[in-house]
Design brief:
With about 280 residues, the chain is an alpha/beta fold. It is built from nine helices and eight strands. The longest helix is centred in the first third of the chain and has 16 residues. It is globular and about 50 Å long.
Length: about 280
């Protein structure tokens, strides 16, 4: 649908563990932006994800391609299949297509940001059910948009922001129950619960992390706590809690047809361009 509207040809690839991935742009491109979509692990990628992926591809440069992972959805397919599939996509890019880790950026929104953090955790501490993935160099970056990293209602913002945000805990609880099924909580499926020490070796895995969130989203307290813990042990973090924005504002605006660009979208595009895609970039 997006490909036809934007006038480009899409190409999909089958991956291990039943996942599919969809290329936006030339798969021979040197630089790759990998998109893990949100939706509580129960909803498929929205048109907005492909639309923004196409927009970012053209904003960056002609030697950039975007690939969107379509992972299996809960409740039919609970954790950890999504982490297996995300790892399979990264393995495909590096081992089959020959992309260099230092030219790959992961970007995830909401549950997709949860998945991106799960991938980092798996590279650092291989999941017992998933084949390890070793990198020759760190990934060039990871962008986390309103990460859903803790399934509890521990932050006060679930109460103080409940009338400002689109989401509420009842919906999130149902989605997380579908996703978790009978699995126990761990650092891969709820990365905000990981101690700072868990992330100590992040510099060997990723050069830079961007995290954005809305000051009016119900998850904001948990996100801020995670940022503080991460910054205590990993210094290449750019974090922004944006006033007046709610959960996943970038994609929400696109889905409802908002014309004015969100501040978090401006931060994302500037970070991708200035930090990661300029020729004079130094890790």
């Amino acid at each position: 649908m997006v490909a036809k509207a934007k006038g480009f040809k899409s190409r999909s690839v089958e991956l291990l563990h039943g996942a599919r991935a969809h290329w936006i742009g030339d798969d021979a491109a040197e630089k790759i932006l990998v998109l893990f979509h949100g939706g509580g692990y129960v909803l498929p990628a929205a048109v907005a994800h492909f639309d923004i992926g196409h927009e970012l591809k053209h904003y960056l440069d002609s030697n950039t391609a975007v690939i969107v992972l379509s992972y299996s959805l809960a409740p039919e397919f609970p954790y950890p299949i999504q982490l297996q599939q995300a790892t399979a996509l990264l393995r495909y890019l590096i081992e089959e297509v020959g992309k260099r880790p230092e030219n790959i950026v992961l970007q995830g929104d909401s549950a997709g940001a949860n998945l991106a953090l799960g991938v980092l955790s798996h590279i650092l501490h291989p999941h017992p059910l998933i084949e390890p993935l070793q990198l020759s160099r760190p990934l060039r970056g990871v962008a986390l948009i309103s990460p859903w990293g803790d399934f509890s209602e521990s932050g006060r913002s679930y109460q103080t922001k409940q009338y400002k945000d689109l989401l509420d805990y009842a919906v999130l609880k149902k989605w997380s129950d579908y996703f978790m099924a009978k699995a126990a909580s761990d650092e891969y499926n709820q990365p905000f619960t990981a101690a700072a020490e868990w992330w100590r070796d992040l510099p060997s895995v990723v050069d830079h992390i961007l995290l954005t969130a809305g000051a009016d989203e119900v998850m904001v307290d948990g996100i801020q706590s995670f940022v503080s813990r991460l910054e205590s042990i990993y210094h290449n973090v750019t974090a922004a809690i944006v006033p007046g924005e709610t959960h996943d504002q970038i994609f929400l605006d696109r889905m409802i047809g908002e014309k004015e660009e969100a501040e978090s979208k401006r931060l994302l595009t500037a970070w991708l361009k200035a930090r990661l895609w300029e020729e004079n970039y130094i890790a």
